[in-house]
Design goal:
253 residues, single chain, 48% helix, four-stranded mixed beta sheet, Nucleotidyltransferase, domain 5, alpha/beta, 9 helices, two-stranded parallel ribbon
């Protein structure tokens, strides 16, 4: 997880560490593409680069160091492309599907039949953005959790109401945060570590139960600053942050 937007969202500059990590990953992708004799590499930049004051400089660095020429896309286009990839990946060619992608800077939600996107929006509700704005301690204070959920509700509930009224057959989740939530649910059910998560079906009830279990498991000790505590057997700090913010549910409008 590169966390390109960490410290650089809302118009601030991408940090040197984040850009360095991203350039390393892109260089690796380039080498992999060349090893498989891929002729064309298509790369797009999303929320973090869209907003960063030094986003243009970072794009130039990518081209200079890797030869990849990324282009910045809008949130709406990002949502559309995610939907196309998700329905293709799960074989949902005709069903009415809702696709949710939880990134670091933004969250994309779409509804469509097969590849036809009927509703699609991008919201500034990514886990890095929410962490930097709302998370002040670990474990999360109840007061901060209420503020977090209220903010998500205000931003996205009306759109989710539109989606719900349109009806759907399935919800498809993508991104590392979704995978982290799946891993938490799997662990709660006693499944072995490393159980495959791709195309696994998880109910809303299972997610709510896992979230409730996380509340009950909060340690009874003084709060540490967010991100300073690590415990064996738990997801890595970055993924644990993602799972916690990603599982915060909005109420439907």
């Amino acid at each position: 997880m590169v966390r390109l937007g960490a410290g650089g969202l809302d118009g601030r500059a991408l940090t040197p560490d984040a850009m360095h990590a991203a350039l390393q990953v892109l260089s690796k992708f380039r080498r992999l593409a060349e090893s498989h004799r891929i002729e064309h590499v298509i790369a797009v930049a999303t929320s973090a680069v869209r907003e960063a004051e030094n986003g243009g400089e970072f794009l130039q660095a990518i081209t200079q160091q890797t030869g990849i020429r990324p282009r910045v896309i809008s949130g709406t286009e990002e949502a559309r492309l995610i939907h196309l990839a998700a329905v293709y990946g799960v074989g949902s060619r005709a069903d009415a599907s809702v696709v949710i992608d939880i990134g670091g800077g933004s969250v994309e939600v779409t509804r469509g039949s097969g590849a036809n996107v009927e509703l699609g929006r991008s919201f500034k509700l990514g886990v890095i953005r929410l962490t930097e704005r709302f998370i002040k301690s670990d474990p999360l204070e109840r007061r901060d959790e209420r503020k977090l959920v209220r903010h998500i509700d205000e931003e996205i509930a009306k759109f989710l109401g539109q989606v719900a009224r349109g009806g759907f057959d399935r919800v498809v989740g993508t991104s590392g945060t979704i995978m982290s939530i799946g891993a938490v649910v799997s662990a709660a059910e006693g499944l072995p570590l490393g159980t495959p998560l791709r195309n696994r079906r998880i109910s809303a009830k299972q997610i709510r139960r896992a979230r409730q279990d996380a509340r009950l498991a909060r340690p009874r000790r003084p709060h540490a600053r967010a991100g300073t505590r690590t415990a064996a057997g738990r997801p890595r700090r970055r993924r644990r942050d993602s799972a916690r913010r990603g599982a915060a549910p909005p109420r439907r409008g």
